[in-house]
Predict the structure.
Amino acid sequence: MKNLIHAENLSLSYDGNRTIIHELNLTIQQGTITALVGPNGCGKSTLLRGISRLLKPNHGVVHLDGHNIHTMKAKDLARQLGILPQSPTAPEGLTVHELVAQGRYPHQNWFQQWSHKDEQIVQEALDTTNMIPFADRPVDTLSGGQRQRAWIAMALAQQTNVLLLDEPTTYLDLAYQIDVLDLLDDLNAQGRTIIMVLHDLNQAARYADTIVALCDGQIVAEGSPIEVMNSETIHRVFGLKTRIITDPVMGTPMCVPIGKRSNPRKLEASPTLNGNINKATKSA
């Protein structure tokens, strides 16, 4: 696979204060789903902001398809890379259609204003996310899952090959979480490269080709779910004892936390991850 994004010796902080990301190196392959995982405050969202150029590095560089993102024109970058921040908010009264239409901004200029093609792309984005019935609804009247789909539709309207999403399932109930992740999986199958911050390790193992585990601003482990999802790595990253078993639905690694109320006899009898699994599958 082609290396699409490469962060080299990347250090990031806010306003020149405490360094959050320390001399980090990361390569993202084209056409893959990458999940960034780790404890609160470890630098996941900061790294995503650095990759998207929302945060200027103290040191190091990020390349997108061989080009330094900090030397690219803003609109050129926005045509290639879309980002959905954590818990985005829309102006009061803005409709779903108006929000999604904002995604066409990078393609506008003084000589080319709104066109039939723009409207067609917006309608396609609404259709892909099943948001056409809500097109005239104000964004602030939607449910959490519907709002998240509306924002994803806006990112789709940008027609970028790369989507960055910061905790896209936060504050959603379980059904909506799977709904959004299935949508992202479909978009990836269409060729989009996706990088997302996730808190749920089992969802990361189900949907990601690559898991990047961070702690204290550095990468602790990186690889396929079967390579990263082990008790030793999780204890190192989260300080938590776990048992790793096989997800009975997907066949991917599944993390079972061991807390104070764990039953020792059941732990001894519980199945562990099948050592014959060599590759985590994304389809049942």
